[in-house]
Amino acid sequence: MKAVRIYAYGGRDQLLVEEAPVPQPGDNDVLVRVVATSVNPVDWKIRAGYLKDMLPYKFPIILGWDVSGVVESVGNAVTRFKPGDAVYSRPAILRDGTYAEYIAIDANEVAFKPATISHTSAASLPLAGITAWEVLINTAGIKAGDRVLIHAASGGVGSLAVQLAKARGAYVIATTSAKNSALVKSLGADEIIDYRAQAFEKTIKDVDIVFDSLGGEIQEKSWQVLKPDGILVSIVNPPSAEHAAAHKARSAFVFIEPDAAVLTELARLVDDGKIRPIIAAEFALDDIVAAHALSESGRAAGKIVVHVGNP
């Protein structure tokens, strides 16, 4: 099969498109023929070696942890899925990934693809969607009427977080650039802050939940807008417990695991018209270097999807 593998940590030149063995599914696996995948920041962070102390890999590695495709075969113990089923997944991060024509995935990490969207759109959802769900629902406990600040609201995670927060009845304040403000407004944001022209920490207050996908100075300034007992949840780096205590607030850090139950809920929201994937750009698997370059630029509005096979 065609796959993208790396043999060492480093730059985009490490991404090699080559032939690789088709994975052999175990008893609890489904073998998925990949129609589409997507690029997430974790992909190039792993490629660059930023997470090598956290995630122990053996080379070569097939990157990619979003997939939408068709079940090719199932292991002896799998009863929920059958060949021909359209499925999607954020598979386990320590197994070979989705930049390939086939992937073996534990059946417990797989869900049926949303029926109303293409594989291209579905491939953009799993990692970002599970992340938004884990932050807002499982960690922050979002409820109707909460004031929620979502940073980088036009990004892959942010665009889904805005929609998920609105679906839960929250008041959504979103930071984005002026050129993406119309997009973010269309997703349901109640208030838009142009981060280039406005200092968000001086513009808003009494926020219940801050969704931090940027870290650094933005994370530090975000403490100022939280109300007492509010929560700052980061997907970049663990927020300071000392800063949380000083502001009488709470903090949390999220690094997601596969979650088929959440994918099933996200599929329902998509099919009910409550969430729509935002696609920033589409690439062929042969153009994976360009896809990584766009992701690393931080300028994509929505998700970067990679076409792998036919539907």
Features:
311 residues, 7-stranded mixed beta sheet, 2 domains, alpha/beta, Quinone Oxidoreductase, Chain A, domain 1, 6-stranded parallel beta sheet
Quick one: biggest sheet? 7 strands, mixed
Q: Cα-atom Rg, whole angstroms? A: 19 Å
Name of the CATH architecture of the largest domain: Alpha-Beta Complex
Q: Could you tell me the mean pLDDT?
A: 96
Principal-axes shape call: globular
Count of helical stretches = 10
- Poorly predicted segments: none
Number of strands: 16
Helix content: 25-40%
Beta strand %: 25-35%
Q: What order do the SSEs take from the amino end to the carboxyl end, as H and E?
A: EEEHEEEEEHHEHEHEHEHEHEHEHE
Helix-strand category: alpha/beta
The CATH C-level class name of the largest domain: Alpha Beta
Describe it for me?
The chain has 311 residues and is of the alpha/beta class. It has 2 domains: 2-125 and 277-307, Quinone Oxidoreductase, Chain A, domain 1; 132-253, Rossmann fold, CATH 3.40.50. Helix content is 27%, strand content 28%. The protein has 10 helices and 16 strands. The strands form 3 sheets. Strands 3, 5, 6, 7, 8, 15 and 16 form a 7-stranded mixed sheet that branches. Helix 8 (241-246) links the parallel strand 13 and strand 14 (250-253). Helix 3 (126-139) crosses helix 4 (156-167). The mean pLDDT is 96.
